[in-house]
Amino acid sequence: MKKYIGSYKNIYICQSKDEKILKKSSSGGFVTSSLIYALKNKIVDAAIVVSMNKEKPWKYEVALAKTQKDIISAAGSKYTIIPLNEFLNIAEKNKKLNLAMVGLPCHITAIRQLQKKGLYKNIKLLIGLFCGYNMPFEATEFLIKKSKIRRNQIKHLKYRGSDYPGGFLIKTKQKLSFLPKTYQQYPEGHTTISNQKHYFLPKGYYDFLNLMFVPKGCLRCKDYTNELADISVGDAWNWDNSSVVIQRTELGNNLLSNPLVISKKIDEKEFYRMHWHNIKHKKIGDPLTLKAIMLFIKIFGRIIPFRIISLIVKRITRTKRRWSLKDVGEHWDRTNDYDEINKETYSYFRRFTDGYKLSDIKDNAYVLEYCTRTGNGALYFAGKRKNLRFVCMDVSEKMLKIADENLKSKGINFKTILTRTTWFPIKDNMFDNILCFETLEHLPHPELTVKELARVTKPKGEVLITMPNTLWEFVHWFAAVTGIHHSEGPHLFIPRKKMIVYIKNAGLKIKREETTVLIAFGPKFLVRLGELLERIFKNSLMKYIGLRRIFVCEKI
Ligand SMILES: Cc1cc2nc3c(=O)[nH]c(=O)nc-3n(C[C@H](O)[C@H](O)[C@H](O)COP(=O)(O)OP(=O)(O)OC[C@H]3O[C@@H](n4cnc5c(N)ncnc54)[C@H](O)[C@@H]3O)c2cc1C
Ligand code: SF4
Description:
The chain is an alpha/beta fold. It has three domains: about 1-135 and about 220-285, 3-Layer(aba) Sandwich (Aspartate Aminotransferase, domain 2), CATH 3.40.640; about 135-215 and about 310-315, no CATH class; about 325-555, Rossmann fold, CATH 3.40.50. Strands 3-2-4-5-11-12-1-13 form an eight-stranded mixed beta sheet, sandwiched between helices. The chain has a seven-stranded mixed beta sheet with strand order 16-15-14-17-18-20-19, with helices on both faces. The protein has a three-stranded antiparallel beta sheet with strand order 6-7-10, with helices on one face. The protein is globular, with a radius of gyration of 26 Å. Bound molecules: flavin-adenine dinucleotide (FAD) and iron/sulfur cluster. Flavin-adenine dinucleotide binds near residues 50, 76 and 278.
């Protein structure tokens, strides 16, 4: 398979630990973090980067970055063709400096060829971006024209603006009456930009635009992953705001020791799952039907009304889970009454009591609780078994802070990790037990998360998952709108059959499965009646009508 991505040493998923870099960059901020690391550690004296022009904020500018500030201000992809000469001029003018350069495959290939002839030897470090397609500046002009915003009204323009994955964003100097009051990127989430000062097109538009504007040269280009770079970087699709990084040379290896970056090794198979569509496009060739669509869009794209294009883009990019882990974290950060309400809700604690009864957890176990919220799961299990050690992970800063206080006050042995990526910053085969209570339905990529849970479990270790039955979606909605319970935030309940497939695909085997809780709340006599009925219908009706599904799985 190396024939598709060139020679390499390892492949990683990485993310910058710096929130500011993460917000400004395109995928996980690996490139920006690496350039800063290379400067600080004197691997290079400066870097050739592409930023946006200060006087003409709609235009890119190739510049020499000598400070951390310069590098951060150049973060973010510029989806436009940039002639190699613009990079070479800067290298030529700064012959005495050891330079890093970020470039597309065509830039890096050309630099390597020039270096073979003894030229531009001062460019020491080549960081390569993946490149599926590119567009001439005419495509940017096309979008500006569509926005109806005049150039002198533009404050800044970003190709990957707003929250990940972002999109084409123009911010204007003043309010413009024809711009909408709010854009909401995720209907269930809260990522909004507003005030009639923003023009925003989600990233999906580029798929359309690429086909309209792609130059002939790009259609002939065979290098997707920047095969001659020291290190190559692309989007880690599916893994939420992360970069996928191909380490190729020893110099590239240095960048992976950066303490400001978290990383996880992945195998080639995982890589192909993310990027096969583009590798196929560049290395194998597109099927005839796609070629025909491309030709049609190239010829007619510019005359199709934008409203129709937007409908097509919305249709193509529609997924049911249109929220990010950040949205989930922000929802729980806003929830004020989590423990207060749950103390009054009978069904809440049953996730722990029923889960514990079905689990084989032993004394001294090393346990990961994923999405620990206020730490109640860890507290309950710690009260049942001796010497448990916990890692409590969550996407909400506020919940994790409360968990920290709660667990400390009870003298539990634990550490907390705040994470907003689908992948976990944890090595393989670490834990004896995993606890994951009512969490998967909130995640944008539950299948990948189950794989992560399995990955970090020791062989023969146990993964305990609880989640609501899809039949109860209405009750949850009703409880939230009537104020009986806090809102669930972004979520989509997962059907049982689908969950079983996720578990199997992750390399787990179901040891025990039970559906519990019939009456979720109410007066004592009703709850007791519910418990009686649960016992009677345990092996029959409960599977269909019970509230909570519990899966106790073993890593094969
Ligand atoms: C035209 C183009 C096409 C791309 N196609 C794909 C793709 O098909 N699949 C994929 O996975 N990834 C693609 N990428 C890469 C992706 O968009 C991100 O740049 C990459 O994942 C790095 O993200 P980051 O957060 O680590 O970078 P950041 O930390 O945001 O840093 C980005 C760096 O790239 C430099 N840069 C920005 N635009 C350009 C440019 N046009 N030419 C040279 N340098 C530039 C900036 O100077 C900055 O230093 C493409 C990028 C571009 C520019
Ligand atoms: S597709 Fe190839 S030729 Fe076109 S910009 Fe990307 S790397 Fe360069």
